[in-house]
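Hi R.,

As promised, here are both runs. First protein below:
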Amino acid sequence: MPRGRYSLYDPHDHSPLGEERFHCAPGPSGWRYVSQLTAPSGTPTGSVDLAIDDLGRPIRLQLQSSDWQVRGAALDGVTWVRTDPTGEHATEGNVRAHAFSGASPAFYVAISRLLRLSPGGESARVRLVTFAPPVLAPLTLDQSWALVDRTAHPTDSGPLEVDEYQVSHLDTGEQHSVHIAGDVVLSAPGIELEELDGPPSSWARP
């Protein structure tokens, strides 16, 4: 069960946004990721609880940010309920999308599991619903993912395979790289892995 800490920063001006302390593990029906987020001052700012099934589909999502909450799952596409800080109002949403996305590294791992791409193979288009902090406003977006390289790095416990994905935002044309080892994101825009206690869990390779 990998445990660790990501540092989060603005990908444009590199100003620090805080930290995300996480643990994740595969289970009998899929994979689960749980984390706590803090501001640069150390003040708690939110949490992430994401569970996916063996096919990478979100079977449970719980997000909390600045007292806003989102609960969601794959149902007729993806369905969610977003609750305001007072808890008095809740709005439900549904989109014919493949999965959820957001600021947490968990979503990169989940999407890579959903797509199961092969190195050098064709890219895949995916429709996502993302929730932007601090108010977790939902936004539907389309991305294209390609697995451009898979490299084995020697470690004390054996070779560690690192996948390099190219992610393209189809609405803006923006592209960026994401490096993932098993169920841990090594680097992505605005994300750096600072600590890792235990090796990443391995996936069955396509």
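And here is the second one, sequence first, then its structure tokens:
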Amino acid sequence: MRLSGKKVIALVDDEFEDLELWYPVYRVREEGAEVHLAGLEKGKTYVGKYGVPATAEYSWDELKADDYDGILVPGGWAPDKIRRYSAVLKLVQDFNTAKKPIGQICHAGWVLISAKILEGVTVTSTPGIRDDMENAGAIWKDEPVVQDGHIISARRPPDLPPYGKAFCDALAGE
């Protein structure tokens, strides 16, 4: 398995987009990586927009980018909550500084905007936050998946297959 020994964080909060969390998590696990779900409260069960639960194994405050190889930020309404926490923003900034894979889909771009890491970066997202992405200095494209260095972005659930592959490829260093 090409991702054996790799560790990834997946951020959670209430109203995450169920498929945008679980599809990449399972895709990365299928390749052999270990994925830890992290939320504001360790042990809390967060509920997705469509009712699928996700229990945080760690709190954001416990995590360090140095201990992980990549991070996944799901969409839904959760990113608007997640981006309000300094621990999350520092974590994303640290992944960015280390040039480790950062996966974001749909509304997850809000977290990267608040982390102030999108200046000059080419990305995609749901068209609904295109203006937000561009106002943060990003170059926005309407494509299923856009990879600019270590930042991998996708628009919405139908783009999950190529997004999952692109994130796994980046994690594998390919």
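A quick note on the second one: The mean pLDDT is 98. Let me know what you think.

Best,
J.
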